[in-house]
Amino acid sequence: MAFLLLIEDDEAVRTALEMSLTRQGHRVVTAATGEDGLKLLREQRPDLIVLDVNLPGIDGFEVCRRIRRTDQLPIILLTARSDDIDVVVGLESGADDYVVKPVQGRVLDARIRAVMRRGEREANDSATFGTIVIDRAAMTVTKNGEDLQLTPTELRLLLELSRRPGQALSRQQLLRLVWEHDYLGDSRLVDACVQRLRAKVEDVPSSPKLIRTVRGVGYRLDAPS
Amino acid sequence: MAFLLLIEDDEAVRTALEMSLTRQGHRVVTAATGEDGLKLLREQRPDLIVLDVNLPGIDGFEVCRRIRRTDQLPIILLTARSDDIDVVVGLESGADDYVVKPVQGRVLDARIRAVMRRGEREANDSATFGTIVIDRAAMTVTKNGEDLQLTPTELRLLLELSRRPGQALSRQQLLRLVWEHDYLGDSRLVDACVQRLRAKVEDVPSSPKLIRTVRGVGYRLDAPS
DNA sequence: CCCAACTGTCACAGCGCTGTCACAGGGACG
DNA sequence: CGTCCCTGTGACAGCGCTGTGACAGTTGGG
């Protein structure tokens, strides 16, 4: 279904994932180190990269950053179990998704498909989240067909969230993406804007279904199933 | 279905897209650099150009601008993912659409068809927006059947807006399209022209229904439903 | 159950954005 | 050469967006 590059130093994990992903219909090339991975990336041009965080030599985060300097292809990080710091650092270093080890091939496959779909949807000019429709060309947002009057900042915030549906974005990241600032003190800037956006976008702003809070991290835009 | 010129330096991407587009029924010629692309354009006269932004030598934007100086054929830009600046610059340089990489052949094909359809509609010489009728061949605009006396600049502004109905255009983009300037300081140039155009076009200029303001962005021409 | 950390909420002051307008330069045309 | 109208500019005002900081509410762990 897709052409993947798997970068993972542990041989057992590597071969297991390779077999499983191949069985799911993907074409897979593998590398055991970050250096080899970067070389293979340039030579083979995969559609997507699955990248272990714990690598000998340059680690996964660094590999991720280096890839992002030149390439925009989707990256999924494999990270050791439930390490919140890893998650934040990983997303900030430019990854599209992360998966916690130990991971089953089926689960990874589902994430791969999700990330690829996300990429396709991004290219499209309109996106739907529940009753909300975002028209990126017209720069309008409608709810049940009615125009929502969003302020410029609210709109930018929603656009950035909608470009990464289902992905938690830290206040730090949002600050960079929406406000183009680097540092947020302990002000409630992002929270206040999210509140205003929720007031217009959510059916019940006090129990938001679209813009979810991710405690300790930031916010996430969900499409209700 | 159409005769395409694909300009893309990365050989893997180029051949992949060429195969995919050929399979979709298009006739495709390819070039690896902007120079070759421009030469092929003159020699072969394709219906549409798919143009990568990252090209060695003269980049895609520049190629796009050069093509626009002499030709009006549709151009679709291939741009690196999630780069808003690219999108804006791309449309300003005269592209008709942009597609975000990595891109699937199917998606690109859909965009190609959409742009071609749009082109056909455009070839039609008149467009209607509410009580306003624009006759592109006669270069006249009528309101309820009566001729409107638009000045040259007002007319160009209205024509550019009407080529992209429902799409928000930034002041920056309009400046490029209508005035062929590059930089707008903080002057009220675009606003002033929009105001004058509204005075003639809108039923109630103080609450415009056709030329809508998109706060923080620019303006948009709507067709009242 | 309690505490600490985190998030939601709100009012307000400042200011950024847009609409508006008058005016002067300049080009077109006779 | 004179006239007229188009056009870009800058000033100004009004509106409403936005960031701030204090405080209340909520969550989760010990």
TrEMBL record, chains A, B:
Q: In this record, what's one Pfam family?
A: Response_reg
Q: Where 4-aspartylphosphate occurs along the chain?
A: D52
For this UniProt record, the keywords arranged alphabetically read as follows: DNA-binding, Phosphoprotein, Transcription, Transcription regulation, Two-component regulatory system
Identify the DNA-binding region of this protein by residue numbers.
Answer: 124-223
Annotated ranges, domain OmpR/PhoB-type: 124-223
Q: Does the keyword Membrane apply?
A: no
Highest taxon listed in the record's lineage: Bacteria
Response regulatory domain span: 3-116
- What is the recorded name of this protein? Response regulator transcription factor
From which source organism is this entry? Streptomyces millisiae
